[in-house]
């Protein structure tokens, strides 16, 4: 997390809403030879105290000594900021971005929890594709789903703390922010997304 308090003002509710909407992050735990990381989809519980996820059975985190402290890093849009865009002297390049860290304890779940987790996860994301008819696991041929479920394992991250960085040039003057925002709006999708967030300040 960025140490500048100007970028750390988002309430837990905003950070959790962002993480819930993204639903994908980098899970990391300490391993015997250094940090282990896995890119995983996840579901936040209704009260935002638990993130449910799954890992391939062969993933190093799945074989780590659990339960263990862990962090889920959820990132959003990001964009390079040229100092020329501010319309002011003596500025330096930087990068604007959004990131939320969910810290807690990663625990394994019984294998029986796997099917319910996959169904809930797919229902969450299939609903975002409406009016497409949602995919459901019942569409699978008999015996295929249980066979595939044996390749993955369910886990939950019990969330103990939430921290977010919304680095959107809050440390610049309104005029400088507006000038940079206008230039970002002409860029790629990531730049445009950062511009929209900056306009929302």
- On the 0-100 scale, what is the average pLDDT? 95
The shape is elongated
* pLDDT < 50 runs, ≥5 residues: none
How many helix segments? 5
* Physical arrangement of strands within the biggest beta sheet: 1-2-3-6-5-4
Strand fraction equals: 35-45%
Largest pleated sheet: 6 strands, antiparallel, barrel
Radius of gyration using CA atoms only? 20 Å
Helix content: 25-40%
How many beta strands in the DSSP annotation? Answer: 6
Distance between the termini: 20 Å
Written overview of the protein:
The chain is of the alpha+beta class and 201 residues long. The protein contains 5 helices and 6 strands, in the order H-E-E-E-E-E-H-H-E-H-H. A 6-stranded antiparallel beta barrel has the order 1-2-3-6-5-4. Strand 1 (24-31) and strand 2 (34-44) form a beta hairpin. The mean pLDDT is 95.
Write the topology of this structure.
Blueprint: H1 12-22, E1 24-31, E2 34-44, E3 50-56, E4 68-81, E5 94-108, H2 114-126, H3 144-149, E6 152-167, H4 174-184, H5 189-199
Antiparallel strand pairs: 1-2, 1-4, 2-3, 3-6, 4-5, 5-6
Helix pairs in contact: 4-5
Task: Give structural attributes.
5 helices, 26% helix
What would a concise description of this structure say?
By secondary structure, the protein is an alpha+beta fold. It has 5 helices and 6 strands, in the order αβββββααβαα. It starts with 11 loop residues before the first helix and ends with a helix.
């Amino acid at each position: 997390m960025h140490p500048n308090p100007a970028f750390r003002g988002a309430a837990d509710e905003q950070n959790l809403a962002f993480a819930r909407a993204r639903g994908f992050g980098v899970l990391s735990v300490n391993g015997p030879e250094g940090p282990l990381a896995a890119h995983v989809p996840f579901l936040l519980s209704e009260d935002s105290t638990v993130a449910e996820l799954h890992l391939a059975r062969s993933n190093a985190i799945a074989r780590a000594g659990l339960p263990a402290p862990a962090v889920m890093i959820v990132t959003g849009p990001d964009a390079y900021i040229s100092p020329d865009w501010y319309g002011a002297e003596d500025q330096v390049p930087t990068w604007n971005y959004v990131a939320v860290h969910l810290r807690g304890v990663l625990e394994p779940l019984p294998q029986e929890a796997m099917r319910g987790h996959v169904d809930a996860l797919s229902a969450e994301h299939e609903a975002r594709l409406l009016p497409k008819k949602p995919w459901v696991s019942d569409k699978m041929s008999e015996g295929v789903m249980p066979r595939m479920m044996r390749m993955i394992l369910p886990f939950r991250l019990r969330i103990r703390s939430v921290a977010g960085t919304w680095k959107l040039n809050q440390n610049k003057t309104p005029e400088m922010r507006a000038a940079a925002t206008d230039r970002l709006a002409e860029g790629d999708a990531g730049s445009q997304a950062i511009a929209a967030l900056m306009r929302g300040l």
